[in-house]
Amino acid sequence: MQDRYSKEIIPIEGWEREETFRFFSTFTQPFFNVHTEADITPLYTYCKRHGLSVSLAYMHATTQAARQVENFLLRIQNGQVVRYSGLDVSATILKDNKQLAFTHFPFHEKLADFCAEGTDIIAEVRKSQKLFHGHQGIDLLHMTTLPWFTFKGMEHAFSIGHEEPGIPKIGYGKLEMRDDQVYLPISIGLHHALADGYHMHLFMEEFEKVLKRYSL
């Protein structure tokens, strides 16, 4: 499948992560997961004020943050490490028949534009019988939401025995209201050959920066 974003090859020989990459590339399960939460009160308030989807809004904020962290842009393709110039989202949508659909959401810089197109996409997908909708390449973030309950941990399904491209896997839980604050459970899974815990820290820093913009 053709990529939506341009990419460049990062030579593994001499790369600062060369030893780490070669070590974790031998693992049959190379992903590690961190489960945390984010205070999304400013974004939640903004969405309620402007009539926007909160779930689409935190998907958009997540993508904005991930685009600022190089390790979230890295993938493994044909044994090589590549860095993409951008990312979109493939998220699970619950259809009217209560089955899942893996759905592509093109990125837009403006939240309102992302939500407008996203709302139209969801309306179409909910009536569909297909499992996959839109672009499903590796220049994506994989997202899923479990809006019925909060969680303290989450693992993702994956296949063993083929090259794993290392697409980040992000899961969200039910929003939790505490006094006047709104918290979003979030699970982040990264391929350890491409990223470490420090890079999750960078992502969460960027995520918090995006959220704070909506308090202005």
Automatic annotation (TrEMBL):
SUPFAM superfamilies: CoA-dependent acyltransferases
Domain of life: Bacteria
Coiled coil location: none
One Gene Ontology term of the molecular function aspect: chloramphenicol O-acetyltransferase activity
Pfam families on file: CAT
Keywords assigned by UniProt, alphabetized: Transferase
Name of this protein: Chloramphenicol O-acetyltransferase type A
Native source organism of the sequence: Pontibacter indicus
Native organism taxonomy: Bacteria, Pseudomonadati, Bacteroidota, Cytophagia, Cytophagales
